[in-house]
């Protein structure tokens, strides 16, 4: 299967008379873009902003991030099953803006999975999106039934973001990309000995699927991940847009839709394929609440990996706490099956950093990569401009925020938990450890 991603490197983003890309500048006709957003009758008001690295801007509550892209061939849209008819995303060509994203922000109301981004100041470094040129959709909806709920589906805003990213991306369809990345893997049993003799590695993804109520979980081809059992997937399917981020996850732990579309771990494994390793593909697993379900999924992951002939595995967990049990159980079952495994997750070690990092641990889980402590306290000075509503951080049950964490001058005290996608279990994390 062959997927081509054409990259348009963004030097700047601006508003203008016509939406399009030329000479490194992506221009957006604001009125046309907002008209596309307002086609959804549940969107009551909307605005667009442009924010760039170094701007004295704070965004909250951020709900999702998406790559601005379009399908040139191979599928009917960016997210088949969610915003278009079902079709495999593993083949064809995608055109995308590189170095930019679309951020979706609530104008007022936030929820448990929403977070904060600083575009400037010392905590710009807190998340990947502080270093991208971002088009920001800020909107409100008529979804009064969940206005004061801590858990919100954020359906209208999430779908508005997906539709807007595709609307903007369609202007790239007939242009020539700055570069083209080709992602192609032969069938596992049809690889020549030069590849098959290399160490065989599988990537296990554990997106958030714990909510039994529909509408909150990660979607795979539009299907709620709570219904899934561990499934083998071609890596091109994830890069091609098969997975949409859900609306249930403490925010620093989540993988945004952008991070599924551009997953750096998958891209590195594809780059190393045929050179240092034999990349077998992706096992899309799930996260469960009941112990029997956790064990069942872990056994199935190990069986798939073993049947593929995996020598090694990378397991990436979206979340912490209850999902740690799934995470460690999968690692244990893989190790029992003879598959050497490395795990990637954040940890919850308390504000003093002295608590047990994961809810579950096992001696077989002896190669773990930590992407950060969700409980780390972060002090943020006032920011010149706030897009969205800062009060959402303390009012609406955002993970990492609490009543009184926002001061009258606009400064904040919060946990890492509240910073949008800050821990990047997808592989984008730039955090370092220091020993004192």
From TrEMBL:
Superkingdom of origin organism: Bacteria
- InterPro entries to which the protein is assigned, alphabetical: Gly_reductase_pB_sua/b
Supply the alphabetized keyword list: Oxidoreductase
UniProt entry tagged with the keyword Oxidoreductase: yes
Gene Ontology MF annotations = betaine reductase activity
Pfam families, A to Z: Gly_reductase
Q: What EC number is given for this enzyme? A: 1.21.4.4
> What is the designated name of this protein?
Betaine reductase complex component B subunit alpha
Organism encoding this protein: uncultured Desulfovibrio sp
């Amino acid at each position: 299967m062959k997927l081509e991603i054409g990259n348009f490197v963004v030097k700047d983003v601006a508003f203008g008379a016509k939406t399009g890309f030329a000479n490194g500048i992506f221009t957006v006709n604001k009125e046309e873009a907002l008209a596309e957003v307002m086609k959804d009758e549940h969107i009551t008001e909307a605005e667009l902003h442009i924010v760039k690295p170094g701007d004295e801007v704070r965004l909250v509550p951020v709900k999702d991030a998406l790559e601005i892209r379009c399908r040139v061939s191979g599928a009917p849209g960016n997210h088949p099953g969610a915003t278009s008819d079902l079709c495999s995303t593993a083949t064809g060509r995608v055109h995308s803006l590189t170095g930019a994203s679309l951020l979706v922000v609530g104008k007022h109301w936030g929820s448990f999975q929403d977070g904060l981004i600083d575009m400037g100041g010392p905590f710009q470094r807190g998340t990947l999106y502080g270093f991208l040129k971002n088009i920001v959709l800020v909107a409100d909806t008529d979804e009064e039934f969940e206005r004061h709920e801590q858990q919100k589906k954020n359906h209208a805003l999430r779908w508005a973001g997906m539709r807007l990213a595709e609307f903007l991306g369609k202007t790239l369809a007939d242009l020539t990309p700055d570069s083209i990345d080709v992602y192609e893997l032969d069938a596992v049993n049809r690889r020549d000995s030069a590849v098959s003799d290399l160490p065989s590695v599988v990537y296990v993804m554990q997106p958030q699927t714990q909510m039994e109520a529909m509408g909150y979980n990660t979607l795979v081809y539009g299907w709620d991940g709570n219904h899934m059992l561990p499934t083998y997937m071609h890596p091109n399917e994830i890069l091609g847009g098969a997975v949409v981020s859900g609306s249930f996850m403490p925010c620093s732990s989540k993988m945004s839709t952008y991070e599924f579309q551009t997953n750096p771990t998958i891209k590195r494994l594809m780059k190393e394929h045929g050179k240092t390793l034999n990349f077998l593909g992706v096992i899309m697993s799930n996260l469960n609440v009941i112990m029997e379900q956790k064990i069942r999924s872990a056994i199935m992951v190990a069986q798939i990996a073993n049947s593929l002939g995996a020598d090694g595995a990378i397991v990436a967990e979206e979340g912490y706490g209850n999902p740690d049990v799934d995470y460690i159980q999968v690692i244990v079952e893989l190790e029992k099956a003879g598959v050497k495994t490395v795990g990637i997750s954040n940890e919850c070690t308390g504000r003093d950093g002295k608590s047990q990092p994961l809810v579950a641990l096992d001696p077989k889980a002896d190669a773990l990569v930590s992407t950060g402590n969700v409980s780390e306290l972060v002090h943020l000075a006032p920011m010149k401009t706030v897009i969205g509503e800062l009060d959402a951080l303390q009012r609406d049950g955002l993970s990492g925020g609490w009543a009184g964490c926002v001061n009258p001058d606009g400064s904040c005290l919060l946990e890492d938990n509240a910073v949008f996608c800050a821990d990047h279990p997808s592989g984008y994390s730039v955090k370092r450890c220091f020993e004192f």
